[in-house]
Give the backbone structure.
Amino acid sequence: MDKIVILDYGSQYTQLIARRIRELQVYCEIWPYHLAGHDLYDSEIKGIIISGSPYSVTDEKAPRLKEEVLAVEKPILGICYGMQLLVNTLGGKVVRSHSREYGKSLLYALEKKGIFENLGSEMVCWMSHGDSVKELPEGFTCVARTDTCEYAAVRDQKGRIWGIQFHPEVSHTPLGQEILANFVFNICGCAAQWTPDSIIKQQIQWIRSEVESGEAVCALSGGVDSVTAAVLTYRAIGNRLNCIFVNNGLLRKGESEQVLSNMRALLGKERIIYVDARERFLKELRGVLDPEEKRKIIGRVFVEVFEEEAKRLGEVQYLLQGTTYPDVIESVSVWGPSARIKTHHNVGGLPEHMKLTLIEPLKFLFKDEVRKLALELGIPEEIVWRQPFPGPGLAVRIVGEVTEERLEILRDMDAIINQELEKSPIYKKLWQSFGVLVPVRSVGVMGDERTYKYVGVLRAVMSEDGMTADWARISYDTLDLIARRVVNEVAGIGRMVYDITSKPPATIEWE
Ligand code: XMP
């Protein structure tokens, strides 16, 4: 399959560039810049994109271009730092500006070919840079400028090496996708081969070759990643796949029944092993108040239960996991495996002594691609669009000790919250929406009686990836309806509050 490689110099936009290229149905990989080497000669690689960077090429310690990048003589597009790096390496001049250019600018294309083919001569583009190109390398031509940026786009004589100062990958550059398409199709000559159908075929073939014989096991959570990985693998190896679904008692209202019935419909009843471990988890969590302690216990008990069940299956050699591309990129990133807050969330790492070979059929896919694949595989929409749900489940949404009574209250409150939100147009824009139980009693009046009940919290946020989040501007009417219904219908709750803190400084979950 034709492929574009992005050499990552640490820009916050690198993943976005990759997603944009893949939206054009061209496969694209992100490599940390220092891994660029002889592999670039691989004939599948049709072009190279050099990303932006927080560095300045004028810094002594700035990351440089590896020799092979120019030596392979493939089409290159440098974006922002990538362009400055090319100019600098090829003998041009880049200087530090006194001020940063940031925001929308009007770009004048001086040629209507190459990356600007069929695009007209004026367009809006998004700029974010401190340094600027002052002199071009020999043989280079300026192909676009803005009122403040003399060299907004450049190319070499043959039209093989291109550089742009602006960011085509962000939505503030309305024609950005067309510019990328011109590069990928016209300049690199890629074919649009990265479609859900072709990915499915390719992955099924790959799983078959990895798991030639023997049995595989996987843990189902009900989330889109684990379900998609299971369905793909089932298509590849059929009955040699065994799925274990552990009910830890920390799921939302009706969730375990829903996951089970969906999975049985998709894979057949025999493929799913259901383990009711509700009491075991609850017992282990008794008296535990600290959130990290809760996470550790839940992770440990999960592994114990999973291992017991896997043993019952007899000889199993493979473990299926729904790892996706962002996790893979993160583990080999320019900055090294970083201590992103997210990493501690991956509960359920299985012990070494199980000696299982990992199968990760989604490891080259972004979340939106997993969803497209899931739809193509006939996975129901409610799974495909399910909001992210933490591994430790409701345990981190009850502040303090987890008890069955509190779980019951939280489940009821959470169900009402989402029933009402689902009716509102904002629901589709929400990253997560849920209830949190604060087991602190607050005074109220109901009829003539004084009440003394728990506080319920509504948490609803918008986010791209969970790393940052903004609280959702839900309408007053919907908020009003939720508060009334929860306090009237959930016996343990006497007061509802709405959490209006964004992330940072607050996290999305309360614990
Ligand atoms: P925070 O609360 O850190 O959450 O802002 C960011 C995203 O991660 C989810 N989350 C978890 N997921 N195990 C998980 O699998 C966990 O322990 C965990 N804690 C938080 C959270 O729901 C949000 O999507």
